[in-house]
Amino acid sequence: MVELRKVEPLPQDYLEQIGFAWHTDPDGSSYVADEVVLIDEEEAQAYYDGVNELYELYVQAAEHVIEHQLFFEVGIPFNLVDLVKASWEQDHWHLYGRFDLAGGIDGHPIKLLEFNADTPTALFETAIIQWALLRYNGFDEAKQFNRVYEAIRENFRRLITHEAPTDQFFELYQGEGLLLSSIAGSIEDEQTTKLLQEAAREAGWKSHFCHVERVGFSPEGIFCDEIPYPFWFKLIPWESIAIEEPELALLLTEIVLDQRAIILNPAYTLLFQSKGLLPILWELFPGHPLLLEASFEPLQGKPFVEKKVLGREGANVRIFDANGQLIHETPGPYDHFPSIYQEYVELPKDSQGHSYQAGVFFAYEGCGLGFRRGGAVLDNMSKFVGHMIR
């Protein structure tokens, strides 16, 4: 049974003041739970070690896909293949991602569900809100597995060293380094992007925020207000660019191939993001204790879940029993994507029967834990639940 501790919720005016405007769900209930999950130091360490190992597996699986040209099999849009390969071959830096995991608490073994490597949500909640929640309630805010903000800030510092830009490189771009963009009208995306901008500023970057609608693209590079930027962070899914803006996908490929700009997160993170990599992982590392069996065909003799390779937020998920009978499904807009099939595993539950899924952020290494609470499938109406180490 998941062990919880009741906490006093953060006041809404405080949340508004720090920019967390998406604190209330459409049904009027609070998005952030007034409880935290209690975990042990050993459980926190296991999450840290687990995602570090999983990331290494993903690197090997991505290398396998690229080497064997398996882009179609894992659902990568054809107009992003060259960009995926270029960003991988040029070794562009992966800024951050989030592993979704079953287990890790209440005696349940950690099992990978998927990797949100491109545009992971719940960053603000994990890095800032759950820390503030402990502090507001008089607990030791250090009693968390949570250094997400610090880890991303350090990764921005590594980015400078890793890409090794020269002084002349920055002079060419008029002293400007990093442009960050989100879609206008999404306060969550904008505030998340500005949180990343602040981490970049603390790491020494000159940066500018610009809604993507105002960003200019040409073979010469990426611009805002006619100023070119050598680095561009976009909180926009790569597959959305490929499908909705195919000409832009090709132009970004040209920009990266000509080394006019570097894009974060790089295009190869769509490989990690694709659930099509789950069967590849199982093929390469069969029986690995952190993995669930996965295949491009329905599993036999055990309960399994059908997922769309580029589905998001729990949409278009179907759960089958060991006899192949459908027992649960969720609607969504991703039916046109291919499916993969993954062994079903029960999530840890509390006394009310709510399920808990761990989300562990990765920025160079595992760096922070948060939980989502909901039903059989965690969707965009699930609650964020913080945690505290006993």
Task: Please tag this protein with its features.
390 residues; alpha+beta; seven-stranded mixed β-sheet; five-stranded antiparallel β-sheet; 32% helix
Question: What report would you give on this structure?
Answer:
The protein is an alpha+beta fold and 390 residues long. It has a domain at 293-344. Helix content is 32%, strand content 23%. The protein has 11 helices and 19 strands. The strands form 4 sheets. A 7-stranded mixed sheet has the order 1-2-19-18-17-3-4, sandwiched between helices. Helix 5 (148-163) packs across helix 7. It is globular and about 60 Å long. The protein starts with a strand and ends with a strand. 44% of the residues are buried. The model is unreliable at 164-175 (pLDDT under 50).
Summary, kept brief:
The protein has a domain at 293-344. It has eleven helices and 19 strands. By secondary structure, it is of the alpha+beta class.
Give me the secondary-structure topology:
Blueprint: E1 4-6, H1 12-17, E2 32-39, H2 41-67, H3 81-89, E3 97-102, E4 111-116, H4 123-136, H5 148-163, H6 167-172, E5 178-181, H7 187-202, E6 207-209, E7 215-218, E8 221-224, E9 227-229, E10 231-234, H8 238-244, H9 246-257, E11 262-264, H10 269-273, H11 277-284, E12 294-295, E13 304-308, E14 318-320, E15 326-329, E16 339-343, E17 355-362, E18 366-374, E19 383-389
Parallel strand pairs: 2-19, 5-6, 5-10, 10-11
Antiparallel strand pairs: 1-2, 3-4, 3-17, 7-8, 8-9, 12-16, 13-14, 13-16, 14-15, 17-18, 18-19
Helix pairs in contact: 2-11, 3-9, 5-7, 8-9
